[in-house]
Amino acid sequence: MARDRKAARHRTRALAVAVLMVGGSGFAGAPASAASLPKGHDVSSHQKNVDWPKARAKGASFVYVKATESTDYRNPHFGQQYDGARDAGIIRGAYHFAVPDRSSGRAQAAYFVRNGGAWSADGWTLPPALDIEYNPYDKKHKCYRMGKAKMVGWIKSFSDEVKRLTGRRPVIYTTAHWWNTCTGGSGAFASDHALWVARYHSADAGALPGGWSYWTIWQYDNGGSLPGDQNLFNGSVRQLKRFAGGS
Predict the structure, then answer these.
(1) Nearest by Cα to 240 from 39, 98, 34, 1
(2) Domains, in order of start, for the chain
């Protein structure tokens, strides 16, 4: 997903598929019923002030809005994007872009929750999401100078703090390649963390990060009819609302 730092205008696409554990089958390309799945998208400061009624008219059922990065950045358009989506009748949630070599998982989680990453069981708020992918600021150290065990510990620390502060485990946005490279394909999170996986190449569509067997949100393109990246939810609109509500 998007980084908003001026020093990193061009984002490296470590393709991902967003997955929530709703369906009962593994991902093997776009599901036959993809056309009927709830459409969504994700936005950051790059989209600036979004025309939310227009997005809703084009079929948006849900959106994730970038809230924070590390412990020193907050999306300046977050209020208009997050509140505007709700006002237009779109289920919305917030995500945090992780930079693990700058501070602890606990510190970044606390900053995130204080600056938009909270959750409410109102049926309109998706669980907080952690966006973790290849290091955009140091291509020589794509895993943030961390070994696999240390990276797993960082993610666990972030997740535990989000759970403590909000009552929900975060959705994890990642790619199969990053996850398997930087965590060793850890299966420590699959049982209680929904997967949001980005994947754009249909030839690789069968791959999921280690540990997960199901996808919930699939980010399949970085442009389309909706502002920002294009996503699908693996379930019905009713299931989407139940997921937002905490079921």
Answers:
(1) 39
(2) 6-245 (3.20.20.80)
